Amino acid sequence: MTKPVFRFAPSPNGRLHLGHAYSALLNDALARRFDGRFLLRIEDIDITRCRPEYERAIDEDLAWLGLEWERPVRRQSEHFSDYRSSFQGLKGRGLVYPCFCSRKHIAERIEVIEAESGEAWPRDPDGAPLYPGSCKGLPSGEVARRIGAGEVHAWRLDSEAACRLLPGPHVFTRFSLDGTTDLVEAEPWRWGDAVIVRKDVPTSYHLSVVVDDALQGVTHVVRGRDLEAATDLHVLLQRLLGLSTPLYHHHGLILDPGGDKLAKSRRSEALSALRTRGVTAAEVRQRLGFAAQPMPST
């Protein structure tokens, strides 16, 4: 039997914090527990925010924690052709459509809809309003003209067409740290017509992550609970692309004293800052529950 494969996949758009450390340590601990492989993947499709110095810092932080991973490391920015190929497969089956809308246009359209209906417009699991479909029914001639003129556009998954093609149910396996598993039915409709190719790069987080996991043979996806809902969309994309579906575990988040999750955007204290003020890797591991390589309960 092939060995199970785990991965830690940070974005080099800022410094790693304790939340990242927990996820990396947990993936490594599970890989060792199941005699599996531990991969590091650099998710750097955001070419405007990702920087080489942050990638170097990821290496330094993980090595400081005592982790080792297989090389070479997969960098998403080096594999846009893989994502284009998968996207073209979806496009060839009429499962995507171009969207020329700006965020401002979408917000204004939803404001009008809410005013006319007197009801709140539905949101996706992340709290963003579902796309109202402004570009979904554009005539093919207009689409060709606008694309030919170089008008900036994203590509959205036509969720109705996708669900007609694959009505489901779309079931995936969730595993707990005690080794038990259960089946979960995905609900991809919660995401509406999600963007799967951004305006600035030929992919998106959702598309690239499912392609990468399949190409790297990832069998167990272990990531934060804040990404749990995204699994619904990922499972649908896996089915549409004919890709295998890993087992999933979404761990609890490391919170700050105010009860909020740690985040680069909130300038949560970085591992490098902890190191600078004298905190040792052993102390970090102990704080996160990995002092003697135990299996945390969250």
TrEMBL record:
InterPro entries: aa-tRNA-synth_I_CS (IPR001412), Glu/Gln-tRNA-synth (IPR000924), Glu/Gln-tRNA-synth_Ib_cat-dom (IPR020058), GluQ/Sye (IPR049940), Rossmann-like_a/b/a_fold (IPR014729). Pfam families: tRNA-synt_1c. GO terms for cellular component: cytosol. One of its GO terms (molecular function) is ATP binding. Keywords: Aminoacyl-tRNA synthetase, ATP-binding, Ligase, Metal-binding, Nucleotide-binding, Protein biosynthesis, Zinc. The keyword Disulfide bond does not apply. It comes from the Bacteria. One of its GO terms (biological process) is glutamyl-tRNA aminoacylation. Its EC number is 6.1.1.-. Residues 6-267 form the Glutamyl/glutaminyl-tRNA synthetase class Ib catalytic domain. Belongs to the class-I aminoacyl-tRNA synthetase family. NCBIfam families: PRK05710.1-4 (NF004315). This is tRNA glutamyl-Q(34) synthetase GluQRS. It comes from Microvirga makkahensis.
